[in-house]
Design brief:
- This protein is mostly helical.
- 83% of the residues lie in helices and 0% in strands.
- It has one domain: Tetratricopeptide repeat domain (Serine Threonine Protein Phosphatase 5, Tetratricopeptide repeat, Alpha Horseshoe).
């Protein structure tokens, strides 16, 4: 009986511990985003980006993370159709997982479903308005569609969050030239 009581008390604390971990993760992300805006160079920015992306991924449930990894492997192996299915399963398990939407957006873009990809990016940004990776993806999708003004606008929003993203200023200049070329 005592063992059952201890087990019940331990299980009762699991949600509270998970909430504390989520709160700590969100606080760290906010701290890192502030540091990202003040990064001294692209190398520091890249390091901060990596840690933020890692924390975004940690927001998923354990089962969702396994499926996310499988989807990433499928993307790496150029099996984007299968990756879309994996990311569908991720979101079925964890429908508030912003990074799940962001990953599915990339997979949908890879199979040419740009409308679906944009919807998933919107879902990502609804859950995390500072998701610079989703804004970068939106910029690339707009560029693939020849929407230079849209690509520039999304890229500028990404740079507002992550001003020294590696290669970011070069891309900004390229997009500005494309937009200016359209205007002439």
């Amino acid at each position: 009986m005592r063992t059952i009581l201890i087990l019940v008390l331990c299980l009762a604390t699991v949600p509270a511990l998970a909430d504390k971990a989520a709160d700590a993760r969100h606080a760290e992300i906010e701290r890192l985003l502030k540091a990202l805006r003040a990064a001294p160079d692209e190398a520091a920015s890249a390091m901060l980006e990596g840690r933020i992306r890692s924390l975004w991924t940690e927001e998923g449930s354990p089962a969702a993370l396994l499926l996310l990894e499988r989807g990433e492997r499928n993307m790496h192996n150029e099996a984007a159709d299968e990756a879309v299915q994996d990311f569908d399963a991720v979101l079925a398990l964890d429908p508030d997982f912003a990074e799940g939407y962001n990953h599915r957006a990339a997979a949908k873009a890879a199979v040419g479903d740009y409308a679906g990809a944009v919807l998933d990016i919107e879902a990502t940004l609804k859950r995390d308005p500072q998701h610079f990776s989703a804004l970068e993806g939106l910029s690339h999708i707009a560029e693939q569609q020849g929407n230079w003004a849209g690509a520039l606008a999304a890229w500028q929003k990404a740079l507002d969050i992550d001003p020294l993203t590696p290669g970011g200023l070069d891309r900004l200049e390229k997009l500005q030239k494309k937009v200016e070329g359209e205007a002439t």
